[in-house]
Amino acid sequence: MAQRLRILDTYEHPQRALVGTIEATIKSVAEAEEELEREPDIELPRFHDDYSKRKWVDEQVTINKENVNERLAAMGAATAQVVQWTAVQEEYDDRVGTAIATIGSNLPDVGRNVRDLAQFMPDRRRDDLIEATRKLCGAFGDFLHAVNPEHEEKRTTVLAAAGRVGDFSQQVINTMDEPTHEQSYFHDHLVQKAKNVATSTAQLVLR
């Protein structure tokens, strides 16, 4: 009996730590959503001519796009790691908490960068970018709920939530830079392959 209690405590202590990390990251999701609603924090310099103004705007757009892309890549990798490391639900992998914390540390900055970037875009694309990012925040919220061990969600729910994170991440990227026909075809092909792999994985897990 004493040995069983020790085993349970060894598992439950890191699980509580993981739940705490998930809850903190959910707050980061809310922070990112709030950043999207705030006024942009952009300090405009004085321009001597139109060329200087266009050059400065181009630089700001490039910087914000690069920041968003880098953070999306980091969060995408972290999401994939969480999916991989939670495959065996009876075992705890302390790397899961680190990967989830990576999502939490990057998402608010995505909100800030998107908010600032949107100011340099035409109205329609600006609204589309904000909406795509808002949906991405929602997808991360759903994913965090799905991987919370206290909720005991089915593996298929976790895989579906991770898939939506990938879809909305790509939607944000596409809205920042409207893809060519070739890029769209290539992405659709990759998404379909990923869905096929996820379906096969889910079938194996359910057996």
Describe the structure.
By secondary structure, the protein is mainly alpha-helical. The chain folds into 2 domains: 13-39 and 48-176, A middle domain of Talin 1, CATH 1.20.1420.10; 180-206. 82% of the residues lie in helices and 0% in strands. The protein contains 6 helices and no strands. Helix 3 packs antiparallel against helix 4 and helix 4 packs antiparallel against helix 5 (155-176). The longest helix is centred in the first third of the chain and has 36 residues, at 2-37. It is elongated. It starts with a helix and ends with a helix.
Task: Set out the fold topology.
Blueprint: H1 2-37, H2 50-85, H3 95-118, H4 123-147, H5 155-176, H6 181-206
GO molecular function: integrin binding; structural constituent of cytoskeleton
Domain Talin central: 14-173
Protein name: Talin, middle domain protein
Rg calc: 20 Å
H-E string: HHHHHH
Major pleated sheet: none
CATH topology group of the largest domain: A middle domain of Talin 1
Helicity range of the residues?
Answer: over 70%
Number of helices: 6
Q: Please, what is the CATH homologous superfamily of the largest domain?
A: Talin, central domain
Strand runs, count: 0
Structural class comes to mainly alpha
Distance from N terminus to C terminus (CA atoms, Å) equals 32 Å
3D shape: elongated
Average pLDDT, rounded to a whole number, is 84
Strand content: under 5%
* Corresponding CATH architecture of the largest domain: Up-down Bundle
GO molecular function: integrin binding; structural constituent of cytoskeleton
Protein name: Talin, middle domain protein
Pfam families: Talin_middle (PF09141)
Domain Talin central: 14-173
